[in-house]
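Exercise 7. Predict the joint structure of the components listed below.
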Amino acid sequence: MPFPRPLLLVLFVAALGAAFWRAPAPAPTGFTPPAKALAALPASFVGEMLWRDTSAVATAPSLSELPDGRIAAVWLAGTDDAMTVRLNVRDRDGWRQPLQIASRESTAGGTFARIGQLASPVIYAEGSWLHLWYGSSALGDSINHSVSTDGGKTWTQPARLTTSPFANFGGQLRSPPLPLADGGLGLSIGHDFIGRHGEWLRLSATGRIIDKRRLSGTGGSAHPTSAVLDEQRAVTVLTAADAMPAPIRIATTADAGAHWQATEAPAITTPATPLAVLRLGSGRLLLAGNPATGRQSLLLWLSADEGKTWREARTVDTAADGGADYTHPALLLGRDGRIHLAYAWRQQGIKYVAFSEAWLDGGQP
Amino acid sequence: MNILAAYGLLAHAVIFGALATLIPLGELRARVALSASTLALLVGIAPGMHAYFGTPSLTLLALAVIQLADKTPSPLTYRPALGLLAFALPFYATALGLGTFDPYALGYQPALLLGVLLPLGLALWWKRQDAWLAILAIDLAGYASGVFGNLWDVLFDPLLVMLALIVVGRQQVVRLIASRTR
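Solution:
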């Protein structure tokens, strides 16, 4: 029996109406800048190995502060073809035993898709929730999202964030999210297929992508990392991927991520390795990364003019031997004003250091 | 369980079964389709397709179901396939990084796109393209279910575009051979 044509039209109009009803139309939002530190801390610096295993590769750490003030770290570790995401928490007695919280197998089980390798993880504490995003590759790179509500002991099955229409090509994550005033989060990600550029994802409070913006003028750039300046403004620092040594590039927004503009590039060059940026309690910006001379040094730069100019502040680690390799910095500003930094140490482990802003200005512990 | 991931896996199994029916096997057609779908799930073909092509669109799934049902000829004929290619190729090029405009981003807040689909649906009804109108209604209902986050993902996908390319390419080859034998 043929389907009545008027009924088909009614069904189409009803489906269209339902789709209109479902389509998100989020109002403009703002950033939630971090609270200012109560008082300037005296100069301090402590450093320790977070994790080390000479038989495995370790890289790409990420830090977050838990509601009780403990510091949580995630990173990638394992053999080259079987990297897993590890989690560790630092309490008063130091770092505990790490947990493996994601693997190729667990990711394939959650996404029902074949997984090649895992890529950089990012952790973020939001109230009692711990968010974990991490990359996985098949033909292209995907970003997966998982949540823990018990301090990292158990995690939900990972769900893929669909950031691209073509087999999820392009979607590399290094930078922690920026909290938004509507309860959502903003993520800066790198896109590296056909054209390399930075992108901005706006996530709803439930973790769903509700907007995506291209960072204008950042063509040929990778490894975006972002910091909030105030309720409406933020800055994203990227590394040029089309030049060596690679100059850094800056993009800014004045409307909480709705539009991004490239600004004049500062005179810093790197070996095209990932960077990390952080807004300090004083309002200055802190940048961590490798200098143009190579991965054998990890440096900190300070900017007092929202990223226009930078001055070298401190060298965190440096060595001249062949194994020296200090990359993938991750920065975190603690609620007490202390600055936490983790980085990949000689590809064998993850090193953690914590210091105060006074130490950055040359003060001695 | 992630509903979108489960949909993607099962839909790829159905699509693989539909692709298997393109082999002329006569009365064995239905059994081959069922076997191919089962095999796709058991030996990792569907997870592989899910990884490499991403989540299939509802349009592709609907075409696969029509192919499996074997009741009507596939609506993906030369002209619709050519129209899809003409739209999808520049779409993918710009969405994947060519230029500054990202059309894929429009699909996250698709009020504008939905506004365009209304006259498209009316035109399909007027032209008596009932199969395509039904598929479009299924696509929109799928988006309204909240399982998909981007409207473009229910409308088309890379595997569908590849099939459209094959349909158009086959027609061009037939025309070329016909012109040479004339």
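Discussion. The first helix of chain A runs from residue 5 to 22.
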